[in-house]
Amino acid sequence: MSKLLRKPVGTSGKVHDVTPENAGWGYVGFGLYRLKAGERAAEATGETEVILVLVEGKAQITAAGQDWGVLGDRMDVFEKTPPHCLYVPNGQDWAAVATTDCTLAVCAAPGKGGHKAARLGPDGITLTQRGTGANTRFVNNIAMEALDVADSLLVTEVFTPQGNWSSYPSHRHDEDDFPRMTYLEETYYHRLNPEQGFGFQRVYTEDGSLDESMAVKSHDVVLVPKGHHPCGAPYGYEMYYLNVMAGPRRNWRFANDPDHDWIYRRDNPQT
Description:
25 strands; 48% strand; Jelly Rolls
């Protein structure tokens, strides 16, 4: 199995715990809790900021000394409605008690004390179409750079219809050379619908020093330390993924693979 593919450690409790230390990089962390109604998760943020994403289900959330009430609305991620999320800065605590079965993502990156705890979504998040033809996908931007809501984190979720491609044409963001490109580590948390489905993701560099192709299943996480990272959803199965990105600066600048950039230029003649 590829070292970039992380399988969940179980079906309940904390099933993912990606840290900079165990990923071998410097910025991104990703945790995932699968809770039954009444179960609790709690953490201190330490030196990181986090964005809690209610992927599905509902939970009573307290964080940074405040009671944020019951967050969550969609009971199935593939309802595609905007998610309920909460930003928690570094140096704080948070706790979640599931009021229904729920899946809670914990997106983490270095915090700098520049933002206060705040709700993100569902207001202000709109499902937006991106791409065309078999490259069509639908995006909920949770915390991208147009919104000044975090010190380091960039977070978004993407729905890819059956038979379509996503994160495509292949692109990379692995050089700290703003404004041409930014260095951003990235995790992908995958879901498939129906649940028993599978999808594909390739992570590769142009020089071939890294080239890993993975079959992904629901609740798998893929690490993208560098290189291009396209995804494909087989016929019959739609794909969801939650992206977490972070690096030295909170900007997303990337470059397409030169071999495949013709697709972008064909589909976007005005750019």
